[in-house]
Amino acid sequence: MSNIITTIYKSPVGEITLGVFEDKLCMCDWTYRKQREAVNKRIEVTCQAEMITGTHELIDQTIYQLDRYFTKEIQKFHLPILLCGTEFQKSVWNDLVEIPYGETMSYSSLSRKRKNPKSIRAVAAANGANALSIIVPCHRIIGADGALTGYAGGLRAKQALLDLEGIDLSHGQQSLF
User: Which of 11, 86, 93, 107 is the most exposed place for a label (fewest CB within 10 A)?
Assistant: First the structure.
């Protein structure tokens, strides 16, 4: 059986587990999220591999880019990624990558953009299943009223990421509604 090489990254906003499978990043996810076991299982089944702790050149590159993101030196990641999910989930995650740094979008706006305004719950569920947090910026999705909504890393981490990107939800000025 193949392996998914994992390591822990201690970010300024919480502990993140990084995982690489066949030279692609398949996990950059909050270590202590509620659905940790389910997400790990989904990735292992998708990759037909098991997780082991180790090191990899791509993990080093990911840490380098994350460190630069947290010091505002970069706004976009350039890493080979592997999305582990259903076709619908992958399509939502690909849409998330298109949300620019420093901007937000509501679940309803994302559903309308996808030409399926009634898919808000499915879009929200896919957003919540994202295993490549920060890289696939699910933190940029907020409620239609501009409020913070659930986040796998917790609302403090989500607020910290939005603050880092200069997003002030108190005025709703930078939200894409």
Answer: 86
Helix axes 120-128, 87-97, angle to 10 degrees: 80
Q: pLDDT by residue (tens digit) across 49-101?
A: 999 999 999 999 999 999 999 999 999 999 999 999 999 999 999 999 999 99
| Residue-averaged pLDDT of the chain | 92
Catalytic residue chosen out of the listed positions 26, 28, 84, 138: 138
Q: Fold for domain 87-176? A: Arc Repressor Mutant, subunit A (1.10.10)
CATH for the 2-70 domain, from 3.40.50, 3.40.720, 2.60.40, 3.30.160: 3.30.160
Q: Which of 156, 137, 130, 142 lies closest to 97, judged by CA?
A: 137
The reply to whether 138 belongs to the active site is yes
pTM of the model: 0.91
67 CB burial (10 A radius; 0-12, 13-18, 19+): middle
Residues 6 or more apart in contact with residue 138 via CB below 8 angstroms: 93, 96, 127, 128, 130, 151, 152
Q: Is the pLDDT reported for residue 177 higher than 80?
A: no
Instruction: Indicate the DSSP class of residue 40.
Output: H
Q: Is the pLDDT confidence value at 149 over 90?
A: no
